[in-house]
Write a structure and sequence with these properties.
The chain has about 525 residues and is α+β, with helices and mostly antiparallel strands. The protein is built from 16 helices and 27 strands. The protein has a seven-stranded mixed sheet. The two termini are about 30 Å apart. The structure holds glycyl-adenosine-5'-phosphate (GAP). Glycyl-adenosine-5'-phosphate binds next to strand 14, strand 17, strand 20 and helix 12.
């Protein structure tokens, strides 16, 4: 991960927000290459999910054809939206504070261990005096890593347990137990008992609308884009000539005051979501859920993500939100562990029902195609594929990052799918003389009308190739002596580094075919 973070900084993909002032935890800026990569990802999502559907034909695995339209809603909404959605009452994480170090942790992300001493006869003796808290991934913490800062303390205990192997055993729910909390040594703390009891922390960013900062004009920065879609359900039905089943897609910013933003952009406080709310007949919801799970999983593979790094995990009943009839995560094997990339949920009619009740506006749908006349008016069920644009960008970067060898030298390359690559081709003159820069610039200007291409004449040609490899540029086009006489250029392919000669006149068509865009 460190290598990727360093490449992102060095090549201008991602910078810490307001870096010259020391940054702001959980906020990131996309640099010149990063903004193109993220825009390409969002565009691919919009083209594939919102624009490429055929209402008259059922795609593979779908119960029928369907409609799809887009929306772009305000970030600020009437606060009643968040009451109806349950965010004001329930959108919280359990938080614990350390009174000594002033660190703050998510209670479900801090594990408490106790020492145990195993004898060769298999018997285990637990040490009940001190418990160690670790903010690491649950169960993954090594004994030495956790115990190291407490060597002195452990050394004294260990002396009394000669000949026995020291291990750590996780103690479930220890932070909820006041007695155990009092004995727990927090990370970086000098004495046990400095952690507070877990308490609910609402993740929404509060703000005030207008000049007065009192409770009458509180609202929130939206924590998801989904609710903008639900509250516009009637507007879309009335104006877009859509019929259930249909979906509404939206891409936009969401804000969550995460307790512990971490793992680069993975958990940020400001991020972008790409969400679909897909409205269907209640009886068909299970089939549509299956369809969207597969469709969304395969979308990542279609954009070049390695199949073996992706997993589709169905939630078990205990993980489901009270209103959900099913939920699956698309998970990715990030360098820091397997984590959620996208969630696909069957949200039933929960949201439309809540908004109907609180707003007093009827959000039911009249289905003139329903065969049973008694079942023509209903609240549609909703299947929600909800993806993160920043998390997706990070996963594609992780997946594309490769260190290999070229001509006996190590190189770093981003093997990004051509649709995602920030720069589609770079154009170089071999040397800065003999009319080569002029010809290269002519080719560059010509291609620029269709693709994001880059011109570079500085430095040795090998170094220019390496820079583009690190930027993920699929093709490098070099103008050399033969270009001026034979009218052809060399085109080097990023992943294989193979070079072919292509006529200048055929270049745009050649690239179009190879890039597939
Ligand atoms: N409307 C449903 C919803 O918002 P979610 O699982 O909370 O569901 C959906 O979020 C997706 O948004 C996640 O799978 C992830 O890709 C992205 N996401 C959520 N919180 C995030 C955060 N703090 N930083 C970056 N991405 C986040």
């Amino acid at each position: 991960m460190d290598k990727l973070v360093s490449l992102c900084k060095r090549r201008g993909f991602i910078f810490p927000s307001s870096e010259i002032y020391g940054g702001l935890n959980g906020a990131w800026d996309y640099g010149p290459l990063g903004v193109e990569l993220k825009r390409n990802l969002k565009q691919a999502w919009w083209d594939d999910m919102v624009l490429s559907h055929d209402e008259t034909a059922a795609p593979a695995g779908a119960p029928s054809g369907y409609g799809m339209v887009g929306l772009d809603c305000a970030l600020l909404m009437n606060p009643k939206v968040w009451e109806a959605s349950g965010h004001v009452g329930g959108f919280s994480d359990p938080m614990v504070d350390d009174r000594e170090t002033r660190a703050r942790y998510r209670a479900d992300q801090i594990a408490v261990f106790q020492l145990e001493f195993a004898a060769s006869d298999g018997s285990v003796e637990r040490y009940e005096e001190v418990y160690f808290a670790s903010p690491g991934e649950l169960g993954k913490t090594e004994v030495s890593e956790l115990v190291e800062p407490h060597r002195k303390r452990i050394g004294a205990i260990q002396k009394t347990k000669a000949g026995k192997t020291l291990r750590l055993a996780e103690v479930p729910n220890a932070l909820r137990d006041e007695g155990l909390r009092a004995k727990t040594l927090a990370p970086g703390a000098s004495t046990p008992g400095t952690l507070t009891a877990p308490r609910a922390f609402n993740l929404m960013f509060k703000t005030h609308v207008g000049a007065l900062e009192d409770n009458s004009n509180v609202t929130y920065l939206r924590p998801e884009t989904a609710q903008g879609i639900f509250v516009n359900f009637r507007n879309v039905c009335d104006t877009a000539r859509v019929r259930v089943p249909f979906g509404i897609g939206q891409i936009g910013k969401a804000f969550r005051n995460e307790i512990n933003p971490r793992n680069f952009t993975f958990r940020s406080r400001e991020f972008e979501q790409m969400e679909i709310e897909f409205f269907c007949r209640p009886a068909e919801a299970a089939k549509w859920y299956e369809y969207w799970r597969e469709r969304r999983f395969n979308w990542y593979i279609g954009l070049g993500m390695r199949r073996e790094n992706l997993h589709l995990r169905e939630h078990d009943a205990s993980e489901l939100a009270h209103y959900a009839a099913g939920c699956a995560d698309v998970e990715y094997d990030f360098p820091f562990g397997r984590s959620e990339l996208e969630g696909i949920a069957n949200r039933t009619d929960f949201d439309l029902r809540q908004h109907t009740q609180l707003s007093g506006k009827d959000l039911s749908y009249f289905d003139d195609q329903a065969t049973d006349p008694a079942a023509r008016r209903y609240l549609p069920y909703v299947i929600e594929p909800s993806a993160g644009a920043d998390r997706g960008t990070l996963a594609f970067l992780c997946d594309a990052y490769v260190e290999d060898e070229l001509g006996g030298e190590p190189r770093t390359v981003l093997k990004l799918h051509p649709r995602l690559a920030p720069i589609k081709a770079a154009v170089f003159p071999l040397v800065k003389k003999d009319g080569m820069p002029e010809k290269a610039l002519e080719i560059y200007r010509n291609l620029k009308r269709r693709y994001n291409v880059f011109y570079d004449e500085k430095g040795a040609i090998g170094r220019r190739y390496r820079r583009q490899d690190e930027a993920g540029t699929p093709f490098c086009i070099t103008v050399d002596g033969d270009t001026l006489t034979a009218g052809s250029v060399t085109v080097r392919e990023r992943d294989s580094s193979e070079q072919v000669r292509v006529g200048v006149a055929e270049l745009a068509t050649f690239l179009g075919e190879k890039l597939g865009i």
